[in-house]
Write a structure and sequence with these properties.
It is built from no helices and ten strands. With about 100 residues, the protein is mostly beta strands.
Length: about 100
């Protein structure tokens, strides 16, 4: 069962350059039309919460700051990034440019 402390957990990884670490959000419904959908048949989530942000990329010798920040909920490309498991939890490391939109402003 979900606890409030799960979303506040600090991730022990610091992304480099213009990368962010995203915790994919769980699919809200497990039953569709009365049928259970097994994990292997579900589509990958495309929405997640940013849990760590890199310092930004270098452009013409100067660092360009990140537009994204920790705590934002974002939409990202279906096949974006690299999946990693830290402390038995799945995360995705993606480039800032692979983030398609920020949810809820």
């Amino acid at each position: 069962m979900a606890t409030g402390s799960k979303s506040k957990k600090k991730v022990a990884v610091q992304p480099l350059s213009d990368r962010v670490v995203v915790r994919p959000l769980e699919e809200a419904e497990q039953m569709r039309g009365g049928l259970y959908i097994p994990d292997t048949a579900k589509e990958k989530p495309q929405e997640g919460e940013i849990v760590a942000v890199g310092p930004g990329r270098f452009e013409k010798g100067e660092r360009v700051p990140m537009e994204l920040s920790v705590g934002q909920t974002v939409l990202y490309g279906k096949y974006s990034g690299t999946e990693v498991t830290l402390d038995n939890e799945p995360y995705l490391i993606i480039k800032e440019s692979d983030v398609l939109a920020v949810m809820g402003g």
